[in-house]
Amino acid sequence: MKKLAVLSVFIWGVLAGINWDIYEHGVVDTFRWSRPFPDDGTDPGGFHVHCKAEGTFHAKMYKLSDLIEPEPLGLQPWRFGIEEFLARRGYPGSWDGVDHKDQNREIVVMEYVDVPEPVRHWIEEQQRDVFEETIENGQKVMRKKRNDRKWLFGIFAKPKRENQQINDTVAPKPTDAAAVDPAHDIKDEDKIVVFAAGAAYEILPLWVSKGSKCERAMSNLTKYKHQAEDDTILAWVTDHTKPKRDLDKRDITFKVEAMEVTESEEGKRSRLMWEKLHRTLRRNERRMQKEERMKVRRELTEGRIKDEL
Ligand SMILES: *[C@@H]1O[C@H](CO)[C@@H](O)[C@H](O)[C@H]1NC(C)=O
Ligand SMILES: *[C@@H]1O[C@H](CO)[C@@H](O)[C@H](O)[C@H]1NC(C)=O
């Protein structure tokens, strides 16, 4: 009977597209995202969906143990560069923030040209150093601002010669087009991007914004929220395949879906009702706790007085 229950949960999980690695390997502490809309294609309850966008992307997925292997099964030319890049910040996790630990940690590698333009633009913006003005000893000074997002996506050049090692990420293009030095400019066709899948969740709407009916809203990351709220963008990686490593394949695809939502009148009414109910319950709970404390105190004092008598 118990076996049957486990089996039915498993079958349900497969149908619902559950990533079982979450339970088997665990999730990094920093991963704060969860699926923000139902997985059966229905709209989030209490919200109007104004528009939806989706896109499917081709990538390759490696384990860190592949770094030392030659291409195409490994990433040998970039080995030191990728190790250095990953060491710059905590591992953001794979899909759903899963951490397979140590040499089994997964990284995604894509042709840079396969990355949608708004994502490329965001990555390059992040990589530029940001300065802030501070006052030191009464003097105004510009200090480089710590920017952890800079290390979410690593851009590397493809090697031009055999056995060429690529140890550094590509510097972002100057904002001023005239300042681009053609001798050192690397075309996007000649670049790859390396990231932990968990990094993608930071900017999911940008993967599907371009050309969608709500391109403007989806390009505005301040509207992108972890859960449905009025006037927000929600997004999720609704599907991803695994590389067929037993067949020496590294290819995967992943699908991103995003939507723009506003709270419906009905949704707002029921939210306000629940919030009120919740406040009342909490107030009652606090009152009961207070009465309990006073009762204990009274009993203690009465007990002490009795003892003294
Ligand atoms: C890359 O880094 C490795 C390890 O630090 C070093 O041995 C190698 O010479 C470097 N290659 C280049 C081209 O800088
Ligand atoms: C982005 O969205 C926020 C929140 O809705 C809004 O205040 C801001 O004006 C928007 N920015 C742009 C450039 O549209």
Automatic annotation (TrEMBL):
Domain of life: Eukaryota
Keyword Signal: yes
Region (Disordered) location: 285-309
Signal peptide (from-to): 1-16
Record keywords, A-Z: Signal
Protein name per UniProt: Uncharacterized protein
Organism expressing this protein natively: Echria macrotheca
